[in-house]
Amino acid sequence: MAHEIFDPETNRRVLVDHAFIVAGGEITKAARNWLGNALDANKRSQIMFMDRDDILNLYVVANLPLPEEALPPTPPNPWSTHDEAPF
């Protein structure tokens, strides 16, 4: 965050003034605070966090089916045809 990047809209190098932090797992409160303080020290505090729960909530709100990898595994059927009855 301390390094300049090239902004093609202004055609010059600028410091980052906003960031999207996206994670496939949980972003802990400590991590959010540390990143927020690092940006806030330079008065550049436009930061948005999106973790696994936020991503899954987008699927729910948009009424989209979840990817197969996001679904919990299906338990085996106790009454499958090649198993004997438990009694």
Main features:
87 residues; 4 strands; single chain; alpha+beta; elongated; 2 helices
Set down the secondary structure blueprint.
Elements: E1 4-7, E2 12-15, E3 18-22, H1 29-40, E4 46-50, H2 52-61
Parallel strand pairs: 3-4
Antiparallel strand pairs: 1-2
Region (Disordered): 67-87
Provide a compact summary of the structure.
The chain is α+β, with helices and mostly antiparallel strands and 87 residues long.
Walkthrough of the structure:
The chain is built from 2 helices and 4 strands. The chain is α+β, with helices and mostly antiparallel strands and 87 residues long. It has one domain (4-68).
Percentage of residues in helical conformation: 25-40%
Total helices: the number is 2
Order of helices and strands: EEEHEH
Mean pLDDT: 82
Q: Can you tell me the residue ranges where pLDDT is under 50 for at least 5 consecutive residues?
A: none
Category from helices, strands and their pairing? alpha+beta
Question: Can you list the strand order of the major beta sheet?
Answer: 1-2
| Overall tally of structural domains | 1
Question: Which value, in Å, is the CA radius of gyration?
Answer: 22 Å
Our measurement of the CA-to-CA distance between the termini, rounded to an integer number of angstroms, reads 65 Å
Query: Any idea what the shape is?
Result: elongated
Report the β-strand fraction as a percent range: 15-25%
Region (Disordered): 67-87
